[in-house]
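## tool: complex_structure
## caller: assistant
## args:
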Amino acid sequence: MTIVRPMRVDELRDAVMQAARDDRRLEIRGGGSKAAIGAPRDPVILDMRGFAGVVDYDPAELVLTVGAGTPLSEIEALVAGEGQMMAFEPFDHGPIFGQSVGAATIGGVVAAAVAGSRRVTAGSARDHLLGFRAVSGRGEEFVAGAKVVKNVTGYDLPKLMAGSWGRLAAMTELTLKVLPRPRVVATMLAENLDDRMAQAVMTRALASHAEVSAAAHLPAAVNGGRAATLLRVAGFAPSVEARCTLLPELLRAQCALRRSNEDEADALWAAVRYASPLDGPTLWRVHLPPSTLGMLLEAVAPLGGRWVIDWGGGLVWLECGGPAEQIRAAAAACGGQAMLVRAPAESRASIAAQHPRPAGVMALECRVRRAFDPAGVFETGRYPGETDAD
Amino acid sequence: MSIKMPKPDDAVLSRRQEIIAALRAIVPGEGVISEPHELRPYESDGLTAYRQPPMVVVLPETVEQVAAVLRWCHLQGVKVVPRGSGTSLSGGALPLADAVLLGLAKFNRVLDVDYVDRVAVVQPGVTNLAITRAVEDAGFYYAPDPSSQIACSIGGNVAENSGGVHCLKYGLTTNNVLGVELVLMDGEIVRLGGRQLDPAGLDLLGVVVGSEGLLGVVTEVTVRILPKPETARAVLLGFPDPEAAGCCVAQVIAEGIIPAGMEMMDRPAIHAAEAFVQVGYPLDVGALLIVEVDGPAAECDHLIEEIARIARENGVTTLRISTDEEQRLAFWAGRKAAFPAVGRLAPDYYCMDGTIPRRRLPEVLRRMEELSQRHGLAVANVFHAGDGNLHPLILYDANQPGELDRAEAFGNDILRLCVEVGGVLTGEHGVGVEKRDLMPVMFSEIDLKQQQRVKCAFDPDSLLNPGKVFPTLHRCAELGRMHVHHGQLPFPDLPRF
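## result:
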């Protein structure tokens, strides 16, 4: 494996242009925590960890500018020290691939559009990336967005970069919106609900004045025989207390709720975040309209699926070795999509990581990629079937 | 009128009757408007200093008609300007003499509401407020609330990525839209996003929102709806000067409070508003803050007390806390009437929209005052204080020779100042025609070309809403040029457009 590690923008530009001249393809990489997603490939690695460190952070402005290669853990510690957070609850994919936490960089988190349980109310990486600096596949440095929280000047290219999986440009610097960290976080817990009732409880809670910030469900089959439905309530103490009183009243007809202690809650939320009870070889991530959750689960249960539910029913982590086409068809029938997150290498060689889009959309995506990377320097073969979309 | 639009194409103008006939074949009856006196209502949008009657107006009713109109125009090389309700403050819907104006007003139905998915699916001509009206009986609302929300359409909100006073807490349009149906300039219909969060593939929806009608025509929008907060309370705070008010704002946020709305007015704006609506604003203050919190009653009661404490620590001289809904609305009445109130001070006003880092506010206001004296025009300021979005209102009289040009020059200086201190040209109104020629103040040529290459991926012939956003029109072939090595393109196996 060849690794190129530029430390400055001019070195990065040279590396990109050199690769184009040499007919070599570059895989933009931070800590490599998500490298096992996508087809096996053998590109030159463009290690972005030389672009690390805090460029500017003024907590009162709610804006943080950092090098894209800065470790996620460092940024989390930095903003926590100021009583703030990245509201989209990014997380490190290491544990999903049997590695420890610590490798993930903020650039990788943004490029993969990673968002945790709070995504259902607080948005994703796309909603918190305000601006960036990057080097395109043409070897040109450019900026888009800005360093203020409210801006509509020019196209919103930060949205494109979030979730671009390193296929448009190599981001060197990111400006993120940060928000105050809640003073108090409580978890209300309902036990032994089946999936259908759990979804009804989550839906009711998310639509209520209790302002639940996250809602997840661990079915009995993956939680030691004891299903756990989690409702997170965060904010200032008097508000959290009032809402923790309101929720059991509101949901009395459906379940008994109790306030979980902190250790128990942390362990349950971590199980949801990393889908850790799902330790089989093949792990999917299905995004879907919550109203179709029951339909999806009915379709994948006969395939031997086991699951963890987050985003109030809008996200299913699905462990299932069944036929990929059946899983994808089930997700599509629900108005959703299934991403192959973890699988043996031979499966990943033939099954695309990303759920295929309609031909017209794939062709448009391809034209947009060529707008940033005309020569395909960043097309590494990680996404089979996507480079010849038009 | 300092901004020049692309020169009309005589060849297209000479084919006007043929173009009208072709459009009538696609959209029958009253859906094609061509009489000069009937074109007048379409000659400008909310940026009324710029006027240009369109060549012809077409008002399709179905997505198939939209696709057919665009496909025909694409094949014939005819430009198209899309239009929602025409409330843009930046000239985004300004017609071109040689372009078809494509109005979406007839797309006015709410198609579906789902309270499990918490979404509403609507046609683009539905007004912003009508979405909330459609879901409020079930206890929901649509959060972005631009001040034109009675009239502005959701399709226009998508094009402009509209904000509003609540967007610090609830986000702009882009944070509240889950999917669109989009017709490309060549007539192809694509669906981006849906009812689920974070769909697969590139976030094309993210770049379509806020693209000012340059990438495609939106024919359906899926928005998130939120449970209506249980209560809302507001506090009215008067300070001796904007510095003290700014310190109060910074401390509110530093203490972890994100208010639903936090609006500042300077002395001229306060006086104008009070003279207009008489809601009892204090006239002996240099800056007025309205801070609103929403949520559970226990939270609002707690936060209002905290905000009052912070205000006292920052030298507040007037402090009123709303005790009922009537009083809360009275606090807002002056702010919501600020634009027409300022409008009474002079025959015309020009509303600017820069964003700055909040900490630079005192300096920006001071230098704006110097600019006001240099240009000989008065300015009043209203300010979305939480997110640093300034709305300076420049007072002028268009009937006085040269005053409009001076107002524009003053406005441009204000926006240059915003960029100089680390801010941006527009926080929520869009670039449109108005700020088009200032784009190089904020972006390099490389930055702008990269954005235009994205435009080329959607509309390679630059037929959709040309003359907006970008100061220089480049041909896509020129933008797409690549370095050729040894007479051969790299990776010949890859497809190119």
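## assistant note: DSSP finds 18 helices and 18 strands in chain B. The first strand of chain B starts at residue 32 and ends at 33. Handing back to user.
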